[in-house]
Amino acid sequence: MPTLHQEDLIQTAENLYGTTGFFVSYQSSTGDALPIRPAAPVHPSQLAIEQEWPIPDTTPLLYTLKDGTAYLFIPVLDQGQYRIGPVLLQSALFRAHIQDETFHQFYKSLTRTTENRLIDCAHLVYRLLTGQQLVARDIRTESESDDPEIPLVADVPPHTATTAYIKAWEREQQIIEWIASGQSERLATTYSLPAYGEFGSLARHQPLRAEKNLLLGTVLLSARAAITGGLEPDEAFMLSDRMIESIEAATSISELRNRHVRITVSFAEAVKQIQELRHSPHVLAAIRYIQQHLYDPLSVSSISQAIHVSSNYLSVLFKEETGLPLARYVIRERIREAKRLLRSTDDSLLTISNKLHFSSQSHFSQAFKQTTGETPTHYRQHHF
Fold first, then answer.
1. Chain centroid to CA 178
2. What's the CA gap between 351 and 377, in Å, rounded?
3. What's the CA gap between 284 and 81, in Å, rounded?
4. In which element (H, E) is residue 24 found?
């Protein structure tokens, strides 16, 4: 292979970044670096693999860390090597695990990708540099072993950890409520977004097993939520069994991509079908409108206008099918939302009352006690 000039090496790296979004660095065989832009972010743990690159071999090396970040080293024969990364693998799972803001900003800056895409990148760059094709699909792989782990909740101030767990709990409860109420559309559009500051993995040395473990947890929670929403237990567990078999049969992480969303949406759709058998289209439309507008002013008139039926007709039909007057159903759903806010936020009773459009704090407290049998203050003391 002809010797590549510095300008060629830099241009190749910057073109690769522009095409893939992967950070690219270069180090010569004597340890000298090239001024490639943008510069790759440095892992907050000051990893040895970043300070001392592996000795170049004839084939690329994929190096993965316990936290789900990865580096790809591609040799430039007799000259040095490129380092692609850090990147964040799809096998890195989100949990209330990392709370350090430095780590959070680092992970946030990384491109999220898969091992297969990195391998494709290695083959492409190797072919570009050498004019030859790697014989095997697989490349050399190594994993982090003795590097120190990233800070856990126990390593950060107590109030920070508490906030993170509250956020994770609040997120989980919201997903459960959406499944139980058949709100598949909301799950499809919002569940796939990771919560702030949540990062970690289960079975951290086995990325595929880690992804499967989290998916199995999602199946279990979703099935329980669907049963709460009216799905027959036998149907819920039959659906669970099919999902579990599919998850366990997967042989790569790429096969499991987006399964979390698909699982929750599938259970929510099953609940929605049950609701459609139980209620007429107009009552279903009213229920869904209420669920989606709890933080807006609601009245029998505004709801009926939104779904294009008369107020009198909707009031009679709603009471016949649900056993509750429409206005009372609105209050019940707002109290359910208030319970979630009392569990997972430090909002004052007045703030919650105003958010949910109760006429006053005393009205909110009275309605809460009539619905739950306890005051909002007592409920928060026992559930916060």
1. 16
2. 13
3. 61
4. strand 24-28
**CB of 318 closer than 8 Å to CB of 286:** yes
For residue 155, the model assigns a pLDDT of: 43
Question: What is the rounded CA–CA span in Å between residue 103 and residue 151?
Answer: 9
Strand-pair partners of 61:
73, 140
In this prediction the pTM is 0.42
The secondary structure element, H or E, covering residue 142 is strand 140-143
Find all residues with CB under 8 Å of 134, minimum gap 6, and list them: 59, 60, 122, 123, 126, 127
The tokens of 355 are what?
A: 């958010």
If you search the block for the tokens 């009372």, which residue do you land on? Answer: 328
Calculate the dihedral angle through the C-alpha atoms of 176, 182, 185, 188, rounding to the nearest 10 degrees: 40
> pLDDT above 70 covers what percent of the chain?
82
Q: Express each pLDDT in 152-200 by its tens digit.
A: 444 444 444 444 455 566 677 778 888 888 887 777 665 544 443 344 4
Cα dihedral across residues 104, 109, 113, 114: positive or negative: negative
Q: How far is CA 87 from CA 95, 210, 232, 324, in A?
A: 19, 18, 43, 53
Distance of alpha carbon 350 from alpha carbon 379, whole angstroms: 15
Angstrom distance (rounded) from CA 337 to CA 188: 21
Q: For residue 70, what is the DSSP state?
A: E
Which of 4, 8, 56 minimizes the C-alpha distance to 30? 56
Alpha helices in the chain (DSSP H): 6-20, 48-51, 101-109, 115-130, 158-180, 184-190, 207-228, 233-249, 259-278, 281-292, 300-307, 311-322, 326-344, 349-355, 361-372, 376-383
Question: Could you check whether the bond before residue 38 is cis, i.e. omega within 30 degrees of 0?
Answer: yes
The pLDDT score that the predictor gives to residue 166 is 55
Predicted confidence at residue 297, as pLDDT, reads: 92
Output the six-digit token pair for 9.
């090496």
Query: Token pair 């759709």 is at which residue?
Result: 269
Per-residue exposure over 312-337, b if at least 16 CB sit within 10 Å of its own CB, e if not: eebbebbeebbeeebebbbbebbbeb
3-state secondary structure of 192: coil
